[in-house]
Write a structure and sequence with these properties.
Order of helices and strands: HHHEEHH
Shape: elongated
Number of helices: 5
Helix content: 55-70%
CATH class of the largest domain: Mainly Alpha
Radius of gyration: 25 Å
Distance between the termini: 72 Å
Strand order of the largest sheet: 1-2
Structural class: mainly alpha
Number of domains: 2
Number of strands: 2
Strand content: under 5%
Length: 128
């Protein structure tokens, strides 16, 4: 299908392919604004071998989040703290989900071992 082929040609969300002018346009912000975000440490683009900034789809999403907060009157220092907290929260949620999955696997293993233990105990009991 044409749309499937088109999807395969698009870069992944973490792949840094957009130049600063394209990234700014896609994010709906000015180039100087994007540079300001970078100066404040809110966005860190990848660099090509020649040192050119390259932005990813994930970077574009982050730029839109920054711009939305700025439009609400939040200053850039506070935006930095908000984004850090959101990133930390997301990482904690991911870790929690992994731990929940691991805990469930351990519970299943524990149940299987308990069943095997009980089976072995029954076999070792003297028969009357």
């Amino acid at each position: 299908m044409v749309s499937d082929r088109h999807e395969q040609l698009l870069p992944g969300p973490a792949q840094a392919v957009y130049a600063i002018s394209v990234a700014a346009e896609l994010a709906g912000i000015g180039i100087q604004t994007l540079r300001l975000y970078e100066q404040h440490g809110l966005i860190t683009p990848a660099r090509s071998a020649g040192g050119t900034r390259r932005y990813s789809g994930d970077d574009l999403t982050r730029m839109r989040r920054i711009a939305a907060l700025a439009e609400q009157g939040v200053n850039l220092a506070a935006i930095g703290h908000i984004l850090e907290l959101q990133d930390d929260n997301s990482a904690l949620r991911d870790t929690n989900a992994e731990l929940h999955h691991a805990n469930n696997a351990l519970r299943e293993t524990n149940s299987a071992l308990a069943a095997e233990r009980d089976h072995l105990r029954r076999r070792q009991q003297p028969r009357s």
